Amino acid sequence: MHRLYDINGWAFVATAVGLIALMTLYPIGKSLWLSLHSGRGVILEFAGVSNVIRLFYDPMFKKALWNTLTFLAIQVPIMIFLSLAVSSCLNSSKLRYKQWFRLAIFLPCVTSLVAYSILFKSMFELDGVVNSVLMAIHIISEPIPWLADPFWAKITVITAITWRWTGYNMIFFLSAMQNIDKSIYEAARIDGVSPIKQFLFITVPLLKPVILFTTVTSTIGTLQLFDEAMNITNGGPANSTMTLSLYIYNLSFSYVPNFGYAATVSYVIVVLSAVLAVVQFKAARNK
Amino acid sequence: MNNKNKVFSLAVTTLLTAGISAKSLAADVTVWAWDPNFNVAAMNEAAARYKKIDPSFNLKVIDSGKEDIEQKLHTMLASGITSSLPDIVLIEDYNAQKYLQAYPGSFLPLQEHIDYSQFAPYKVKVMTIGDKVFGIPFDSGVAGMFYRSDYLEKAGYTHKDLLNITWDRFIEIGKDVKAKTGISMLTYDINDVVLPHIMMQSGGEWFFTPEGEMNIANNQALKETLKTIKAINDAKITRPTSGWSSFVGSFNAGQVATVTSGVWIMGSIKSVDEQKGKWRVAPIPSLKLPNAKHASNQGGSSWYVLSTSKDKEATINFLKKTFAADDDMYQTLLVERGALGTYLPASVGYAYTVEDEFFSGQPVFSDFSKWVAEIPQVSYGMYTQEVDNAISAEIPALLSGDSVDDVLKRVETALKYQLM
């Protein structure tokens, strides 16, 4: 009887397992094998770990890694904090037209990555709407070269990703907040705890698992940052928005193609994601 | 819908699609090209003409963006899945060696079919490996300085004042124009390579020597180019742009007085009817080098036949009878599309004397064809894109005052590790 169940069970999952093996496991294994090769286009030779050694000398890789980590270190905290703040405002019982706000803040993340990138690019042009508005309200007297200056280009990309993903993370926080028992807040209010302290000492600790989850997914997302860097600034100016994923793209499609080395760089992203996730789990547990 | 119906309609659809694909596989020669007003139009013109020779010939041009084509070509050639590759593909000259060397055997050598002495030598060089020549040279990227005659006149300059000037003089004029009209002299995109490429090639050098050695730290033309770029920026006569559309947008909106680019930019310039009669073309300014020319090249591309082509004979015959033979076709392409071919027998003819109303009656193509002959020959090699990116990384340091020698030394060191 047991055996029959086993066979039946395996038969049911066989299709899924087969597909996963074919579509996911095989490419993972193949790319690992590929990362041990180097060469030009289809002329690949076995190169062992020389690709890994090359990483340490490759200035463009270092630049891309540094940029990616900069985006990560600045953008993820800002975004997580923003989504927390926004969702806690939206969770307030005093707020009217809540659905509308929720919809407005969530809408960005249903737009296509390329479409919104192109929109941001045109908004942040020298004579784009952002500069026009800032000049009209006299915050700046000269247009800011959002896309032509290495520093401002980074700011533009960070602004874009934050706009795109804040609403997405907000949804997780909102649903988690609705699960927090209202009586805790009531007790706090009776004890005279200010709303800000309620937020810091009740909401945030209770949301810890969700904060951890959003941080990990955002970290992985930012490590894979590609569409925005490609479409808003194309890695420029002066490679200031060159990310690891864009570098992989360049290694395969813009430069003389070296698919082996490109695979090695993509494994850097895998390793980084894994390491950062472990670090974040550890940090969360220790608190 | 019940199950029987579903099966039936599925079968019908399968049959239909099978029928359609079988039919399209039979006769069509497919081409991948970008720019519907230029390359695609040229291909369609050629096909229409070839149909008179061979009525059974059918050509299908698939029009997509240049980057999409490059990417698709890479993935398909690398994966070895050749069934959806076209018969003919358009490749930009800077990228040609990269494809030819990274995917050996994927392109058909044509030296036995085509008389390459009939094409501009610099174009043939781009597609040669050893004794094999691949592809059919197409358009030239001969450079010119397009300028707004109305703005320049307002500042007191005539066409004569812009002939055979140096970049230093260009900057002086630019300052004057900016002071008198408030219009910037040119656009500047910190990421862009068009202007540096034009300047460097006009000085007769490239990032690599003809022997394939890296030529950066001691490249006089590149040094002068970077010095000039810095001087142009210091003079505050530029309008910053970012990317292709804002570049085109700024001259279409009349925000700059000059555009220095390959001849292929003409289509974009002429796209604004209200600016008719306000543009003219002058030769590009020269670098301060003894052998620097007032002529250079930017871009340009050529047709390549893939060795997986299903009907090689028809494909080669088609190209041979059109792009390597039809003088008259090139005249039409020139007048209608501004496409300046590199097929030498076609470089004289009625089209070259046509006076263009858009350029105040200037016979622009007779000028451009003169400059074609003066373009210094360089060999692009495979790594242009890599070097461009490495230099672009140092441009902010250059603009903030680092010496050109230091900058180029850093670029060369960086590239040594990157290209290993």
From TrEMBL, chain B:
It comes from the Bacteria. One of its GO terms (cellular component) is periplasmic space. It holds the Pfam family SBP_bac_8. Keywords: Signal. It is found in: Periplasm. InterPro entries: Bact_solute-bd_prot1 (IPR050490), SBP (IPR006059). Residues 1-26 form the signal peptide. Belongs to the bacterial solute-binding protein 1 family. This is ABC transporter substrate-binding protein.
